[in-house]
């Protein structure tokens, strides 16, 4: 049977991808950001996951404001790299795992989550930047990917509670798949940031670090954070953190924190990163 062996959270700042693509990752500004992922690169090379279920949000690349699914799952064989205005990033096409993805779609829908099934979808920096942070810039990605897109762009987004429950349902779905796959679940986006208005550039380090603490020690507290609290404490784009809760719900009650990184700033946001492992009693 398939098994969730780890969970990863990370910001997916578009400027991180641009820095890599333009060879600026070793500059004084960017080197400290990328250094925070060195441990994870070495660790994941040893772990060798077969599939990553990658929870992210689309940035008007695959979905326009005409159609915005709350939860969508990519079931295609492959996912081309989106052109976000400057041409597609120079990274490999993302290869899917249709067998697992279709199983997850069926299981989640029958578990009363109304997933939108996507059979053709371009993927943007929300998905490719996390892959670059973990695997650098390879000729091909070393894992298959099942994308799960969450609406955090158009109000109303799903609540943290709903996202956590989606993660719990995702765990049940993965563990009922009859192929022995090493599966990781990644939750991306955040941390605190705001891109517009009088508070543009907002970063709340106190909120961010408390969120990182609670991801391991007290996820129930995070499930209760309201939309208004995210807006007030983490800025208008801080709502992306609900996607981390999908990952956390998938890991079970107890986890071990293997690695943690937090850095301010990267472009106009705070970068947060965790590597979590379910404890043996939860596996």
Describe this structure in words.
With 283 residues, the chain is of the alpha/beta class. The chain has a domain of 186 residues: Protocatechuate 4,5-dioxygenase, Chain B. 35% of the residues lie in helices and 22% in strands. The strands form 2 sheets. It has an 8-stranded mixed sheet, sandwiched between helices. The protein has a two-stranded antiparallel sheet with strand order 4-5. The chain is globular and about 45 Å long.
> Would you list the SSEs in sequence order as H and E?
EHHHEEEEHEHEHEHHHHEE
Give the tally of β-strands. Answer: 10
Strand order of the largest sheet: 6-3-7-2-8-1-10-9
* Secondary structure category: alpha/beta
Q: What do the pLDDT scores average to? A: 96
**Radius of gyration from CA coordinates:** 17 Å
- Helical fraction equals 25-40%
Strand content: 15-25%
Low-pLDDT runs: none
Distance between the termini: 12 Å
What is the makeup of the main sheet? 8 strands, mixed
By CATH's scheme, which homologous superfamily of the domain at 3-188 applies?
LigB-like
Number of helices: 10
Inertia-based shape: globular
The second-level CATH architecture of the domain at 3-188 is 3-Layer(aba) Sandwich
CATH fold-type name of the domain at 3-188: Protocatechuate 4,5-dioxygenase, Chain B
Question: What is the CATH C level class of the domain at 3-188, in words?
Answer: Alpha Beta
């Amino acid at each position: 049977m398939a098994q969730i062996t780890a969970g990863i959270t990370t910001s997916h700042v578009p400027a991180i991808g641009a820095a890599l693509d333009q060879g600026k990752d070793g500059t004084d500004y960017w080197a400290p950001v990328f250094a925070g992922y060195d441990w994870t690169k070495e660790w994941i090379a040893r772990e060798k996951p077969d599939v990553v279920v990658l929870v992210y949000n689309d940035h008007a690349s695959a979905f326009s404001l005409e159609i915005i699914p709350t939860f969508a799952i990519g079931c295609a064989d492959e996912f081309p790299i989106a052109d976000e205005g400057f041409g597609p990033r120079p990274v490999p096409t993302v290869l899917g795992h249709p067998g697992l993805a279709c199983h997850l779609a069926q299981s989640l829908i029958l578990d009363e989550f109304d997933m939108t099934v996507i059979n053709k979808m371009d993927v943007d920096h929300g998905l490719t930047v996390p892959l670059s942070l973990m695997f650098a810039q390879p000729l091909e990605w070393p894992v298959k990917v099942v994308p799960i897109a969450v609406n955090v762009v158009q109000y109303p987004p799903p609540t943290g509670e709903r996202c956590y429950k989606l993660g719990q349902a995702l765990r049940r779905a993965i563990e009922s798949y009859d192929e022995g796959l090493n599966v990781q679940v990644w939750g991306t986006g955040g941390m605190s940031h705001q891109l517009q208005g009088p508070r543009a550039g907002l970063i709340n380090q106190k909120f961010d670090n408390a969120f990182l603490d609670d991801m391991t020690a007290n996820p129930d507290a995070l499930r209760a954070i309201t939309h208004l609290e995210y807006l007030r404490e983490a800025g208008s784009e801080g709502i992306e953190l609900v996607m981390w809760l999908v990952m956390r719900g998938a890991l079970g009650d107890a986890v071990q924190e293997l690695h943690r990184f937090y850095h301010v700033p990267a472009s106009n946001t705070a970068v947060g990163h965790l590597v979590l492992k379910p404890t043996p009693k939860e596996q």
